[in-house]
Amino acid sequence: MILVPVAFILLLLFGMPIGFAIGLAGVVGLIDMGGDQFLAIGPSKIFNGLNVFPFLAMPFFILAGEVMNDTGITDRLVKLARVFVGRFRGGLAHTNMLASVFFAGLTGSATADAAAFGRTLVPAMVREGYKRDYACAVTAAGSIIGPTIPPSGLMVVYGSLMGVSIAGLFAAGVLPGLVICIVCMAVIAIGGNRENLPKAERGATMAEVWSTFISSLTALAMPVIILGGILGGIVTPTEAASIAVGYALFIGIFVYRTLTLRNFYGMLVRTARITGVIFVIIAFAGILGWWMSFERIPQLIANGVLSLSDNRYVVIAIIIGLLLIVGMVMDITAILIILAPVLVPLTDQVGLEPIHAGIIFVLALNISLMTPPVGACLFVLSSVTGERIERISLKLFPFLMAEIAVLFVFAFWEDAALLLPRILGFV
Asked: Which residue has the higher pLDDT, 207 or 365?
């Protein structure tokens, strides 16, 4: 049994992409179980790992986000956020955070949020007198709102793998995402004097607010279409994702007229690249997951944790700690695919509702997107802005602590985590 984790760690240390490292570790497990004859199982496990209909939603959501990013939607959403909160001290930092909420309903991707705002809002904040490392930290903190408020690719993966309602997970993500925004804006307000954040000379007039809101309606309609269709039971997440692509193309071609054939080709290439990386991990994880089930590893881990304590809150804290620690050094999709089958039986034994357990996983892994040394959002912002990761990380610390506190509140307070799913009838 020890051969598989050793092989996996060695392959990662030698620089092999994580998807292939997972696959080869799984092959080692098959050979260790019964020699060459077990290798024949591999192709079927790879196929079955991807033969899940809801996975079709992922490339459509990614493509919809790519189209919306390249049609000027980002600028409109930023202007809308700014007329609402730009009058306060640190107004552009507050704008950054609120725009992340608007942006979340379009892409559902933290890295897309970080890249878009890293190119637009960070330079604007620097020009207004913000320190660049602080501007990057605010952007990183807000970026995880994207995959928390639906649509969320991570929720699609979790729901598909664990047989949990994706629409229920989407509903459960709305409130934590909004609370993260509010808490981070509080952190900005509290640290405003210490960071010497600039203050706007005047607030927007009602006429400016109204005109900006009207010009943003086409962008704001997209999350309404996606969430309204899914949560209202009108369409499945996969159908909603395809409708979102059609809507985004219509807006880009006929309304804004900014979408060209050359740009669209680039969007297709980026969508295929992102989807391919995720699907390679999911496919090869099918082998590793079957090996873990055969060796009864989930049951062994569950029994080991419960031997330490059977207290519900202690077990939840252990799970969160493990996810945050592993998230510091691994890709979050890979973590979800490897650890969810291992840890979910543990959540079942302490009586967690499946949607509640799912939102804990998603929140913890989203937070790990901004934790060093391999937080994806940190690398994106560093590459886009040229700021050093360690400087961003230092300024990010108060936001990180605040978001971890939000995670524990929703992990321990089930009624808050399941408020919207219960209202909508998913629980």
From this structure: 365
- Please give the C-alpha separations between residue 2 and each of 7, 21, 38, 296, 338, in angstroms, as whole numbers: 9, 16, 18, 14, 16
Altogether, the residues listed in the chain come to a count of 427
- Among 340, 402, 328, smallest CA distance to 370 is for 328
Q: Are 17 and 275 in contact (CB under 8 A)?
A: no
Q: How far is it, in rounded angstroms, from Cα 181 to Cα 183?
A: 6
Please, is 120 exposed, middle or buried when counting C-beta atoms within 10 Å of its C-beta (0-12, 13-18, 19+)? middle
| Count of alpha carbons within 13 angstroms of residue 161, beta-carbon side | 29
Two tokens, residue 332? 């979050």
Q: Which residue has the tokens 């510091």?
A: 328
pLDDT of residue 295: 79
Token couple for 344: 């979910």
Separation CA 270–CA 275 (nearest Å)? 8
CB 381 within 8 A of CB 387: yes
Contacts of 115 (CB under 8 A, 6+ apart): 380, 384
Distance of CA 418 to the CA centre of its chain: 19
Task: Give dist(CA 315, CA 312) in Å, integer.
Answer: 5
Over the chain, what is the mean pLDDT? 84
Q: How far is the C-alpha of 138 from the C-alpha of 126, rounded, in Å?
A: 12
- What Rg value do the Cα atoms of the chain yield, rounded? 22
Rounded (to 5) percent helix, strand, coil in the chain: 80, 0, 20
Tokens matching residue 260: 């060209």
| Predicted pLDDT of residue 404 | 96
* 382 CB-side CA count, 13 A: 15
CA dihedral 350, 366, 191, 206 (to 10 degrees): -110
Distance CA 303, CA 345 (A): 10
pLDDT at 356: 96
Give the separation between CA 233 and CA 230, rounded to whole angstroms: 5
3-class SS at 425? coil
Q: Which has more confidence, 135 or 376?
A: 135
What is d(CA 125, CA 69) in angstroms, rounded to the nearest whole number?
A: 20
Q: Which residues pair with 199 in a beta bridge?
A: 89
Per-residue pLDDT tens over the stretch 247-277: 888 888 888 888 888 888 888 998 888 888 8
CA–CA separation, 18 vs 8, rounded Å?
9
Question: Are the C-beta atoms of residues 246 and 186 closer than 8 Å to each other?
Answer: no
